[in-house]
Structures are given as structure tokens and as C-alpha cells.
Amino acid sequence: MVAFRTSAANAKRMQLTTSGAIARYFIANMPKWLWVYILKKRFAYRPQASFLDPAKDTGTVRPVGQPSLAKTKVLIEALLNKEQQQKASSTLPSSTNTVDPVAV
Quick check: 33 pLDDT over 90? Predict the structure, then answer.
């Protein structure tokens, strides 16, 4: 959604209307500190797929946290723990599975 809104704003800036002319003038005469602030906000969001290894953070701007990534990692950890517990319980001998020759 953010990319769509950014694209729409860029399209509006390119129009040959009064609002497009004002936007182009503002961008052409923007102070450097404001431009740096905008770029930091734009590049701070770096989505990461939960099934891949995390990307190395080599930039100067720290990435923004992703709540959905954290939730997915918790779910994956829970599934892995459940599978490990099921494997561990299936390898242990159970008293209900063994047959008592005296009771038969």
C-alpha cells in the first residue's frame, strides 16, 4: 500500500497541473536535511521473508521492526517444538502399547 501511494504521488508530481508544478518546485528547492529525513523513512522499511535467513544489515539506517515477521517466527518455533515433542514421545516405549503376558 505504501508503494502504491508513493507511485500515485509521483504520478501527480509529473502532471502538468498547478499542484504538479508546486510539488516539483518543492522538491527542487527542498532543504538537504528534509531530503535526508525523507530518505531515511523511505528506506527503513525492508521486508524480510520469515522462511529465509535474515538479510545482513550493512546500511546506516536501521530497519523498522516487522510485527508480522515476529508473529510468523513465533508460530514456526511453536510448530517445530510440537514436532520435536511428538517425535520424542513416539520413540519412548509406552505402557499402553506393551502387552502384559500375565494379563492375557
Answer: yes
